[in-house]
Here is the input.
Amino acid sequence: MHSTSDIRSRRGTADRGLPLTSAISLPLVLLSASLAVTSPSPGALAQSVPSAQQATAVSPDAIKQREQELEAAREEQRKAAELQQKLKADIAAIGQDRSKLNQQLIDIATQVRSIETRIGETEGRLRPLDAREQQVRASLDSRRSEIVEVLAALQRAGRRTPPALLVRPEDALQSLRTAMLLGSVVPELRGRAEKLTADLTELVNLRKTIATERDILARDRDRLKDDQIRLAALVDERQRKQSAIEKDMEAEGARAVNLSRQVDSLQGLIAKMEQDLKSAAKAAATASLQGAPAAPGGKPNLGALKDPARLSPAIAFASAKGLFAFPVNGRKIRDFGGSDGAGGVEKGISLATRPGAQVTTPCDGWVVYAGPFRSYGQLLILNAGGGYHVLIAGMERISVNIGQFVLTGEPVATMGTTSQVASILATTASQPVLYVEFRKDGTPIDSGPWWATSEGEKVRG
Here is the structure.
């Protein structure tokens, strides 16, 4: 095959006064490049299949690759060790300052959820790009014979010498016929070449865009992993300090699970926890006595959310409508009042999430139950004051204890890899689902009015 410079050095028969080679040089180059990528030569194929003797020997390139992999693993270990040392130093610096620890927890949890959102958006952009790349590739593969045919014709045209018009009449006639033939073929070749060129150009651009998006995704996943490690260390420190305050917390947790087996309904569970369990009863009494600060002029004081040392809700639950963020990043798949798929109606909302997604509290409140409960998987119940309770279910692991006061946006649980709620398991088994229910004086209510409709309206801790 001739190089581009060889082709340009020869002048073919012109179409509409233009040199043939100038019209076809770009398609020829691109098409040649495509064939070089998608159609390796027999020699190249032969070289790619090592002999039995070659297979037994380790090539210098393979040794070099293994050394690079080993070095990369050592670098990962070094970074992990440095991160652990930094975490220990940060936690030591926090000391006994509860407000600093709370603020760190909320900030890192917010960052984790932000990265989760970016990862979801990037994956959403990649899906149609990957699908389109497959379509273009399939189209080009199905036209492999056409590519070969067009290339061969263009090469023949590129190698053809200008017709000799000043020889014998027969030669002149033959030259004329050749020119006429080329005049009819070139427009068709040009059209086919341009179509193939357009497809190849799209494929090249798609691959560049996909590579960029995958780089972004890889960076975000690395950041998410580091932040999750940091968050886990902070949560452990929070619970260690909480355990030091409540000496009998472990026994209380075991007793709560035993008590939960004695009731059949969520309302019965709430009542039993707040009556029979010391830490839950204390939390309920605190919520009842302190309630939540009244909102001056009917408007909530959002500035109160900036105090990470608070021990009661910053905003009265009833006056916080339109301010809450969902406890997890996800897509709503069931709404309050809709069919529950078993002949009844939904008493809460269900959010399909990513595996391992971070769960945070939508509001301030006291934990009155944290543990497994019947068909709900892991269940968390918050007393938000003013007769309101928030129930969150379907997590794989809960990281707070009964009696604990938690702040808006504080990390309290993580999702698993599949649905844990039995009523949702039958329809969405392959994806984790979070169930959220609001109650007022024991009765389920529509949580819709409390959720923020835009990012800017959500309350942050």
